[in-house]
Write a structure and sequence with these properties.
single chain; about 425 residues; mainly beta; 6 helices; elongated
């Protein structure tokens, strides 16, 4: 109740020394109060499926996390011929075919070797289907990458390709001669129209084996056509000593999507008990967040709508409410599993659907959601949200937070719960009591 709340406040009614303070009688000053003891109940849960179609980055790799367990990331994609009506010439002979991928970012230990597989799709990707992280598309079982192994090397540039030097991190995956010969021997009419070509080469599914320790998920920019392409090298009767390169691209008009798999049975006992077995009481100590259709956390303020129940002839006005999310003490920002840079928070409706918090509309500099390495925490301002609950304009169903970019960003986070003795999750509220 609000009476108990006021008794625990760190500040009481006061006369602020500001311009104009002589305009009010001493008895008319508005009391300003602060509290950080608001009751909070929270727990982590498995995220629903998330849309991953044509997102900013494709993810590829495998990571074994001591807390979250195993995650494997791959992607499905179509390809686009680079020039319409291309003719490979008389008696073309394949030299090689390579899938080159532009590396944009990474999460985890990139020194661990990854084993990649490439499978040709047997079903056509559709522009009208909303693919998600759980979606699967039929493909052949022949591995066109022949279990090629690589380390992402996200900071390496100066990769020599033929006579060129690529001044950006890339991954080059040699593919089977079978695929190259198939593309060279396709009837030339299939290179006249994009849709016709996609009917005869439906695309590839790229995935990696599970690693036995550490590992990393690599972010790839598929639509950077200067760096990402399926490169076919060949020569023909007219140029027997001069190899020719022909590229197939992935464009914004092509369909591609991320596919993620999690094995939480390999996670820590505390994590499994809360997230998988549903022991919500453990959220009082530790909560979790993970991208790639992984884990989110629900946060509730059970008594919030009752704050004003005992007040007569006055109202509570929330001046500011900051929800503080501190990293678990075991988190090391210099380690492979860094804290995420950006977080997201939404309100929850009674049916489990979500809505944008009113504070979000005030702009990111006010709203928050950015992780600070200096304080090893993040905050959200939820002043308007709390006011709407107190005034019973919104049902008190809680809020849900996760990591931003869940469909294309590899990240996880461990956060202190509200029951920790030090540096706990809390909401710092500054409010006033205003007469009618």
């Amino acid at each position: 109740m609000i009476g108990a709340l006021i008794l625990t406040c760190s500040a009481c009614k006061k006369s602020p020394n500001t311009i104009g303070n002589n305009l009010l009688n001493e008895n008319n000053y508005i009391g300003v109060f602060r509290t950080d003891t608001t009751e909070i109940v929270c727990y982590s849960y498995l995220d629903d499926s998330i849309g991953t179609k044509n997102v900013s980055y494709a993810l590829l790799g495998s990571s074994l996390d001591p807390v979250f367990g195993l995650t494997q990331a791959g992607f499905y994609t179509q390809f686009h011929f680079s020039t319409a009506g291309h003719n490979f010439g008389e008696s073309p002979i394949l030299d090689s075919i390579v899938l080159q991928l532009c590396v944009s970012n990474y999460y985890g230990d990139t020194s661990v070797m990854q084993t990649v597989h490439a499978y040709e799709l047997t079903d056509t990707l559709s522009a009208t289907v909303s693919y998600c992280n759980l979606s699967e598309v039929a493909h052949n079982t022949t591995d066109l990458a022949n279990s090629f192994q690589f380390c992402p090397r996200p900071h390496t540039s100066g990769y020599v390709v033929g006579t060129d030097t690529v001044k950006h991190p890339i991954i080059r995956i040699p593919l089977s001669q079978e695929l190259g010969n198939y593309l060279i021997n396709l009837d030339s009419t299939y290179y006249s129209e994009t849709d016709l070509f996609k009917q005869h080469f439906k695309g590839l599914y790229m995935t990696c084996d599970a690693v036995s320790q550490n590992g990393a998920i690599t972010s790839l920019t598929l639509t950077n056509n200067s760096l990402t392409s399926l490169q076919l090298y060949y020569h023909n009767a007219a140029t027997p000593d001069k190899p020719i390169r022909y590229d197939f691209y992935i464009t914004s008009s092509d369909v591609y999507f991320n596919h993620f798999e999690h094995d939480y049975s390999l996670g820590s006992p505390e994590f499994r008990q809360q997230v998988i077995e549903g022991d919500t009481s453990l959220g009082n100590n530790t909560i979790y967040a993970q991208t790639m259709g992984g884990v989110r956390t629900k946060i509730m303020f059970p008594n919030l709508e009752h704050w004003a129940d005992t007040l007569e002839n006055c109202h509570i006005v929330i001046n500011e409410a900051k929800l503080i999310l501190p990293s678990d003490a075991s988190i090391d920002d210099s380690s492979f599993m860094k804290s995420p840079s950006s977080l997201i928070m939404v309100g929850l409706n009674e049916d489990g659907s979500t809505y944008v918090l009113p504070d979000y509309l005030e702009g990111s500099s006010y709203y928050g959601g950015t992780y600070s390495t200096a304080t090893r925490s993040a905050f959200f301002r939820i002043s308007e949200y709390m006011q709407s609950i107190i005034m019973k304009k919104k049902p008190n169903n809680g809020i849900s937070f996760g990591i931003n970019g869940a469909s294309y960003n590899a990240a996880r986070w461990i956060v202190n719960g509200p029951g920790k003795e030090e540096n706990k999750l809390r909401v710092e509220v500054t409010y006033s009591l205003v007469g009618e």
